Amino acid sequence: MQPANTLEGLYHAHHNWLTGWLRGKLGCPHSAADLAQDTFMRLLTARETVPLIEPRAFLTTVAKRVLCNHYRRQDLERAYLETLAQYPQMTAPSEEDKAIILQTLMELDQLLDGLAPQVKRAFLLAQVDGLKYAEIALELGISIATVKRHLHKAALRCYFAQ
């Protein structure tokens, strides 16, 4: 039996409970099992560990973040597939290219997480839609100087992420 204050002990003591909690949220036992594993992987890769007084409350908090990321990925994938459906079949990317593009979009979304929505929007308008500063300013109803600040902030996030 593992001590409850280790990650292994936490896993053994609460994994089944967490999977059940996630199953209640998702309605799917397979997704619940995957997200429970993702929750413990997040703990395993955390830079610092904290002593736990209420392990289930802590796990619930971490799992809610994992669940939120799961829903964001689903929304991103749905939007991407809806966009692809608008293209003629002849110009649609291959399944392999679709998977690569979707993975890149998810990585970009995670990379930009934490930036203000308007900063993200400006970055995407510039990088994905190819709009110029003046066009972005018009689209967002902000000054060109603000567009430049937003794009600089997003570029710094991308640069220092590695």
Overall number of domains:
2
* Residues in helices, as a percent range: over 70%
Strand residue content: under 5%
Structural class: mainly alpha
N-to-C CA distance: 39 Å
Count of β-strands: 0
Residue windows where pLDDT falls under 50 for at least 5 positions: none
Order of helices and strands: HHHHHHH
Q: How much is the average pLDDT?
A: 85
Main beta-sheet strand count, sense and barrel state:
none
Counting H and I runs of at least 4 residues, what is the number of helices?
7
What is the 3D shape? globular
Rg, nearest Å? 20 Å
Describe this structure in words.
The protein has 162 residues and is mainly α. The protein folds into two domains: 1-93, no CATH class; 114-162, Arc Repressor Mutant, subunit A. It contains seven helices and no strands. The chain is globular.
